[in-house]
Amino acid sequence: MPKQARAIATRETIVDAAAEVFAERSFASATLADVIARAGVTQGSLYFHFASKHELAAHLIREQHARSIALPAGVDGARAMIEVSLALARQIQSDRIVQAGLRLSTESLEQFPELVAHPYEAWAEASAALIERAIELGELAPDLDPAAAGRVLRSSFTGIQVASRVTADWVDLVDRLEELWRIVLPGLAAPGRLDELLALLPAVFGGADAGDAEVSGSGASAATG
């Protein structure tokens, strides 16, 4: 294997191992020795790629941000809003980098002040853009404030994912998300469109499994816990 390819593979191994460690343990209690043991690499290899535990954890937060929100291909408006949230819920259930990034950004705010606010802000902005488009399509109420609604959706999702992690290790997250949409859609819907919006939920959630909520890699980046 060429030297550059080996270096890339080693870096990926380290990142994957670090994601497992930080998903399981707090930033304070996790150590680079834990990561080295999990990755099966030398201390020198790890330090070649990451100068410190802080740098490695910051990389995971950035990577989680890059993965967490992408616009689904081929859908628009309200359905896109719902599918984005479901894709994120599935990532939280199955993607260790997403799990690690969320834990780091919610439990270690003081360690990463320059990183943790931006994903939440970006997610609210991405949600606002989808809401604005749904208003243009006549699906959502014309007097709705997209920025305010985007913040509410971001904060609501954050709340249910944290509660789901604490109470059920995220096993019930998709169910809790569907409940959330059933409760908030009546407050968002344009007159005469609520039944249509509620009908999206069984269409999106009904057959959803880990492979159903594929998203395009070119979507709007945002993230959160």
UniProtKB/TrEMBL annotation:
Keywords: DNA-binding, Transcription, Transcription regulation
InterPro entries linked to this entry: ArpA-like (IPR047923), CprB_TetR_C (IPR054126), DNA-bd_HTH_TetR-type_CS (IPR023772), Homeodomain-like_sf (IPR009057), HTH-type_TetR-like_transc_reg (IPR050109), HTH_TetR (IPR001647), Tet_transcr_reg_TetR-rel_C_sf (IPR036271)
Keyword flag Acyltransferase: no
Keyword Transcription belongs to the record: yes
PROSITE patterns the record matches: HTH_TETR_1, HTH_TETR_2
Start and end residues of each HTH tetR-type domain: 8-68
GO molecular function: DNA-binding transcription factor activity; transcription cis-regulatory region binding
Source organism, top-level taxon: Bacteria
DNA-binding region (UniProt annotation): 31-50
Name the UniProt record assigns to this protein: TetR/AcrR family transcriptional regulator
Natural source organism: Schumannella soli
